[in-house]
Amino acid sequence: MAADNKAQDYGAENILVLEGLEPVRERPGMYIGSTGTKGLNHLIYEIVDNSVDEHLAGCCDHITVTLEKDGSATVEDNGRGMPVEMHAKGVSAERVIFTTLHAGGKFDNSAYKTSGGLHGVGSSVVNALSDHMKVTIKRNGHIYEDEYERGKPVTELINGLLPEVGNTRQTGTKVNFIPDGTIFEKTVFKAEDVKTRLHETAYLNPGLTIDFNDLRKEEPERISFHEPEGITGFVKALNKGAEALHDVVYYKGEAEDVEVEVAFQYVNEFRETVLGFCNNIYNADGGTHITGFKTMFTTVINNYARQLGNLKDKDSNFTGPDVRNGMTAVVSIKHHDPRFEGQTKTKLDNQDAAKAVSKVTGDEAVRFFDRNLETLKAVIGSAEKAAKIRKTEEKAKTNLLTKQKYSFDSNGKLANCGSKDASKCEIFIVEGDSAGGSAKTARNREFQAILPIRGKILNVEKASIDKVLANAEIKTMINAFGCGFSEGYGNDFDITKLRYDKIIIMADADVDGAHICTLLLTLFYRFMPELISEGHVYIAMPPLYKAMPSKGQEEYLYDDAALARYRKEHKGPFTLQRYKGLGEMDPEQLWETTLDPERRMLKSVSIDDPMIASNTTELLMGTDVAPRREFIHANATEALLDI
Ligand code: TSJ
What spacing in Å lies between the alpha carbon of 139 and ligand 1's midpoint? Predict the structure, then answer.
């Protein structure tokens, strides 16, 4: 009987549903980006965004997100409750929202309209990709329920309207859904990602409280996100652990019918973090709001720098990246009709957003800096630092290019190898002439080249470029590698011309040796970064000790841990020789311990993360000796991984 009723009631609707949501199930990636964990989590965000929208409408201040034991997720808010009234299509508005795919339908969670408009755009997509969905609405003094399976309604309507299951004075919307395991590769929500996103949402909506519960664990996790400081707090959190140069600056304003909010703070680091949000949605590729902010901010700082005399008539302006050196900023706008560009729809495209942010920044940043000269000076100081480094690098590029010819005769001390097969060749950069001499004798001449360097090569960041170029070691090294001088530096650097598969730094195992390593790595970082990123740079590990229990039984020990092990395992007496430096080893010993590919130990230098890399370079360049040493030692285990 019920089945008959259903068929009658829903026949037409089911067809509508099939036509409406089938494309989502056929090509889920188009709508939620992926069917992996990211896409899975996105289902939650799509639903939460609807509640946030209700908050933006001024009607909701509390959202609860729960990861349930059964693998489902529940999102509940205390808003007005979704409209359940009869829609023009002859069914409850709620039905229409959950079963109608909205035009465009691309992966796009940007559907916020800060003023009214139709909500629940992502909700039909989530419904289509859910094994089961249950909607509970408190509104008009009643509690209504509706349920779906893989996007199809299973609740019987009464004259097209939702059944009332109870009465209440409260209002709100609750949606519980369990992702479809036939669509998603994994159906386990990632709590860390969800929490991060909810926390971000809390920063962007200071009046909102978002409770998060993870009931899947033995010990359920409960966190409440409430960030009354808004994007100011967001910037503080982003800068946590870094040395801030001033308090967070916040301003807001309105122009072109766009609401603009900006918070920024400079830290004593060589990095730039500028995040853009439109209607609470993060725009990973930035867009017009970010461009408007950057352009005007650069203009403002250059104007001040000229007024204050930091830039003289003859000086060129700071570049945008100069001005943003050390900056962490959040730019958040509210736009009535946001448009997005690109495949992933993560780049804001509205031209009026650029105008609005530019106008508000021009007015408000100037108003702030006029009254806060100390902060202004910190910002300009940061830009000056960046400009200096930039100019050094630019000079390095042109000088190295123009001086390429005269450098070709400076291979004096290089003892090259016989083979021209780069994949087999190695070059050892050896500290000290005496160790260099031993290495030349000891090496396999066929594939091992030796380049001795004396003392400390120049710190490439501190020395003037002419000095860098005049430095015989650096010239020789660049020539020997083969990818520098013929093609120039920076972006033109041609790794395919590299003449050695391995560039092996061989320095004493003391602080001076570590310093030489650092200087060489700095040189490579700044001018030939691919050497490191492509894994061509190594550090040789000469032994620290030789233990001899009896003649012919010697064993080389490469660190103190090895010595400790040796002491444990060898009970009897033994002679222990401690090497002070490479110079103490005769050629045969040097071969056995450090050159012979069969027996030696190498550390490969690998720093992939550009964030780590930029921090590292800064550390390496610093004038502060103590932290630099610390870095070198710490990174014997971290940045430089054992192979
Ligand atoms: F995604 C969703 F649709 F499933 C969903 C929507 C999920 C959740 C958890 C909440 C919501 C939602 C929708 N919360 N609040 C609203 N509000 C409305 O849709 C609404 C309420 C009242 C009026 C009105 O004009 O009276 C208008 C709207 C759009």
Answer: 11
Taking CA atoms, 405 is separated from 268, 410, 484, 526, 569, in Å, by 40, 11, 12, 22, 58
- Tell me how far apart the alpha carbons of residues 45 and 122 are, in angstroms, rounded to a whole number: 9
CA distance 300 to 364: 11
Question: Which pLDDT tens digit goes with each residue over 249-280?
Answer: 999 999 999 999 999 999 998 888 999 999 88
For the cut 90, the answer to whether the pLDDT of residue 517 exceeds it is no
pLDDT exceeds 50 at position 489: no
Please give the distance, rounded to the nearest whole angstrom, from the Cα atom of residue 179 to the centre of ligand 1.
21
597 Cβ neighbours under 8 A, 6+ residues apart: none
CA dihedral sign, ordered 252, 253, 259, 262: negative
Please tell me the distance between residue 636's alpha carbon and the centre of ligand 1 in angstroms.
Answer: 55
Q: Which atom of ligand 1 is nearest to the CA of 48?
A: 9
Give yes or no for a contact between 255 and 356, defined as CB atoms under 8 angstroms apart: yes
Q: Are 70 and 164 in contact (CB under 8 A)?
A: no
pLDDT in tens, 216-240: 999 999 999 999 999 999 999 999 9
Asked whether 80 lines ligand 1 (CB < 6 A), one says yes
Q: Give the mean pLDDT of 194-210.
A: 95
Confidence category of residue 408, pLDDT binned at 50, 70, 90:
very low
pLDDT tens digits for range 449-461: 999 988 667 666 6
Residue 619 pLDDT exceeds 70: no
**What is the structure's pLDDT at 14?**
39
Instruction: Quote the ligand 1 centre to 600 CA distance (angstroms).
Output: 67
Cβ burial, residue 456 (10 Å; 0-12/13-18/19+): middle
**Catalytic entry in 61, 211, 393, 512:** 512
How far apart are the C-alpha atoms of 122 and 133, rounded to whole Å?
14
Pick the residue whose CA is nearest to atom 25 on ligand 1. Answer: 83
Task: Look up 508 and say whether it is catalytic.
Answer: yes
**504's tokens:** 């092996």
Q: What is the CA radius of gyration of the chain?
A: 32
Ligand 1 pocket, mutate which of 45, 53, 80 (most atoms under 8 A from CB): 80
3-state secondary structure 280-333: CEECCCCEHHHHHHHHHHHHHHHHHHHHCCCCCCCCCCCCHHHHCCCEEEEEEE
64 CA distance to ligand 1 centroid (A)?
15
More confident residue, 470 or 193: 193
pLDDT grade for 604, boundaries at 50, 70 and 90 = confident
Which of 87, 119, 147 for a ligand 1 pocket mutation test, highest count of atoms within 8 Å of Cβ? 119
Residue 79 Cβ contacting ligand 1 at under 6 Å: yes
Ligand 1 neighbour 120 (Cβ under 6 A): yes
The CA 1 to ligand 1 mean position distance, Å, reads 33
Q: Is the CB of 54 under 6 A from ligand 1?
A: yes
The partner residues of 77 in beta bridges, in order of sequence, read 63, 173
Q: Is 55 in the pocket of ligand 1 (CB under 6 A)?
A: no
Dist. CA 505–CA 113, nearest whole Å: 59
Least reliable range by pLDDT among 229-238, 323-332, 598-607: 598-607
Question: For this structure, is 409 an active site residue?
Answer: no
In order of their start, the domains of the chain are 22-225 (3.30.565.10), 231-396 (3.30.230.10), 402-542+602-635 (3.40.50.670)
The angle, 0 to 180 degrees and rounded to 10, between the axes of the packed helices 373-402 and 351-371 is 120
| Residue 130 Cβ < 6 Å to ligand 1 | no
